[in-house]
Amino acid sequence: MTNGGFNGEGVYAIYRFEMARALRTLWQSLVTPVITTALYFVVFGAAIGSRMTDMDGISFGAFIVPGLTLLSVFMQSIFNASFGIYFPKFTGTIYELLSAPISSLETVLAYVGAAVTKSMVLALVTLATATLFVDVRVEHPLLMLMFLFLITTAFCLLGFVIGIWAQNFEQLQIIPMLIVTPLTFLGGAFYSISALAEPWRTVTLFNPVVYLISGFRWTFFGVADVPVWASVAVMLAIIAACLTAIIWVFRTGYRLKQ
Amino acid sequence: MTDAILSIRGLRKAYASGTEALKAVDLDIRRGEIFALLGPNGAGKTTLINIVCGIVTPSGGTVLVDGKDHLEDYRHARSRIGLVPQELTTDAFESVLSTVTFSRGLFGKRRDPAKIETLLKRLSLWDKRKAKMMELSGGMKRRVMIAKALSHEPDILFLDEPTAGVDVELRRDMWDIVRKLKSDGTTIILTTHYIEEAEEMADRVGVISRGELIAAEDKHVLMQKLGRKTLKLTLAEPMAEIPGELAEWNLELEDEGHILCYRFDTNAEKTGVPSLLRRVSDLGIGFKDLSTRQSSLEDIFVGLVHEERAK
């Protein structure tokens, strides 16, 4: 490595380490979340989906696929990225990272990069599984991948921040369980918010997850609850907020250094 | 000092709790030496090491690694330093080979399986390369941590309590490893509780107490400068009290008057030993045996720390 240059070897070492960890825990990191989501597809898509009315002209079974996939992606992105940085803090092996010639940007790139890779794989496997049970079409495949990439990046960055903030295993679970899950269920994963009566419709618009699900669903079916540009703006805003928090953490050493 | 590979000036650390762990420490480490940092628990040894390695943020002062600031030029500084921390913290599920390879990459060095192989063989770890960290004994884990710290071929190696909780045989083993490293030109800074260890291995010794560096000298100079000798005369007949003629030597009686004890400074121009012996024979005091003992680094250390505490 040349002095002052980019520590590519370091980024690669962490990336490989994180991917190896995922492969070791394949059941937990991939199989279990895919099966859990597939159960929703079976129940709401194949079993009772036919009794539900169509949403925005889309069969109910297909309508819920993007939202449910995102629910799983949100959870796994946060768990993966937070655990990646929390665990070294917990075991003490973080000493090595802190004493290494690696910048904060490189550290984030490596940990979040690995988490994003895992979440993208999870999302694609989940979507592929969905096609076994319900009839899904993707109108804008490239945009779908792009949305997925931005969403996973946003939630992996959020997970990284949570991992640094958390001081015990319970705190790792609080935000995904108590905030992200309710926001997703109430954010239009199972319904179009146009179906809501006022004032709930307006209240729902304050939920950022609405914009993520709406935009992602738009790439599938071409229908959205909110303008697509607003979805993109919310994704970028989440990414920017998390990056700001991370830069601050590394500048001050908050919960990393004494 | 021109040949300092590590130059510490006015280094301070006050923790958020208000504890002043370091109070303006100045220290130069010479290229290629083994420097032992001694001090009681909580004296600031680990804080000092952790600041230099980038794990703890200093409250003030500067650290130059080969002339470059360790914060401004952190890549330069850190790529030249290896750290073996006190605690045996390892990734339980990783194999020896993968964890050492990981460390080399993390420190920005190109993958080099041949170098890793040489390193593992040298630390007698090659046979265990496929073992998971959690399957290893404490001594083996310590070796792996040394291998990790050396994987990027650093010039400076910090060993924080390398032999804490290690049995005698392994400790000797560790000493051999450290000596080998020194012969390769690695500068080694170690902290230890075992003064025997510093006495055995170090070129220079620093004593730290309550966040202050109270001595940093060549080991032999320190032992000579602060060392004292004790002359003991085993008397033929026990003595009830010291005769007035011997008052000027400040003697002490030990073992119920069987042993006459004289403590003297090895540096003094006149130790007073010949004149004492002459006076003793003039007085007709018979003795069966005579012995002298040089105070160890341990005595010096205890003396220094006590002196510091008394202030």
From TrEMBL, chain A:
Task: List cellular component terms (GO).
Answer: ATP-binding cassette (ABC) transporter complex
Location within or outside the cell: Cell inner membrane; Membrane
Q: What GO molecular function terms would the record report? A: ABC-type transporter activity
Organism domain of life: Bacteria
| InterPro entries in alphabetical order | ABC-2_transport_permease, ABC2_TM, ABC2_TM_bact-type, ABC_2_transport
Q: Does the keyword Transport apply?
A: yes
Q: Where are the transmembrane segments?
A: 26-48, 60-88, 108-130, 142-166, 172-193, 205-223, 229-250
Q: How does it sit in the membrane?
A: Multi-pass membrane protein
Q: What positions does the domain ABC transmembrane type-2 occupy?
A: 24-253
Q: Which UniProt keywords apply?
A: Cell membrane, Membrane, Transmembrane, Transmembrane helix, Transport
Q: Does the keyword Transmembrane helix apply?
A: yes
PANTHER family, alphabetized: INNER MEMBRANE TRANSPORT PERMEASE YADH-RELATED, TRANSPORT PERMEASE PROTEIN
To which protein family does this belong? Belongs to the ABC-2 integral membrane protein family.
Kindly provide the name given to this protein in its UniProt entry.
Answer: Transport permease protein
Protein species of origin: Sphingomonas edaphi
Automatic annotation (TrEMBL), chain B:
- What molecular functions are annotated in GO for this chain? ATP binding; ATP hydrolysis activity
Keywords (alphabetical) are: ATP-binding, Nucleotide-binding, Transport
What is the protein's name according to its record?
A: ABC transporter ATP-binding protein
What are the residue boundaries of the ABC transporter domain, all occurrences included? Answer: 6-235
- Name one matching Pfam family: ABC_tran
| Top-level taxon of the source organism | Bacteria
InterPro entries, alphabetically? AAA+_ATPase, ABC_transporter-like_ATP-bd, ABC_transporter-like_CS, ABC_transporter_ATP-binding, P-loop_NTPase
- SUPFAM superfamilies per record: P-loop containing nucleoside triphosphate hydrolases
